[in-house]
Amino acid sequence: MLDESALKSVYFVMSYFDLFSAVDWLFLKLYYPEKWSGYGRYVRTVVELAGYSVLGGFLCAGVVRLMPRCCSCRSMPAWFWFAVGAAFAALLCVSTGRQYVESWRRHFASTHQLVAAPGCCTQATLYPARVVSDLCAYLARVHSNSKFAVDLALDGFARTSGLKSYLVEPNVVRHIGLVSSLSHQSKTARHFL
User: CA-to-CA distance for 83 and 80, rounded, in angstroms?
Assistant: First the structure.
């Protein structure tokens, strides 16, 4: 299901990164499962978490500085309140989850980012017209099964062709299906939570 501003966000990202004229990419994923898009040991997510921590630290120290001088919390140094606010913000972000902390970005097309696409998941994927015939010919030669899914075949084609694959973050579509192409079995609702 498309978000309200999905087309605007995709157009902005493709224009900003000049994907309309670029020939070095295979696909643009518009969805990645929320349960796998949390904070991890990636530089990008650590920098995001550090940014929210610094923001929380400045807000906490600023609020304490705005309190009247008679307040007992003013006796502590500003760096202490900065550390308290930063720690609280980091713990709040980690406990809430990156996919929910970053959800504010869905409302502004210019805050979407383009990152390297992970190997999983092919729903809501945009392909440039120039690669479709080569990709179809490649997939016709590949035999997919439960151990070698279409996702892996697409990544193999991207690697052998020297093409990049991208993911738009945050998601601009939502997955509402209960049937997986990986195991050809229906999923229960808890798999999507």
Answer: 5
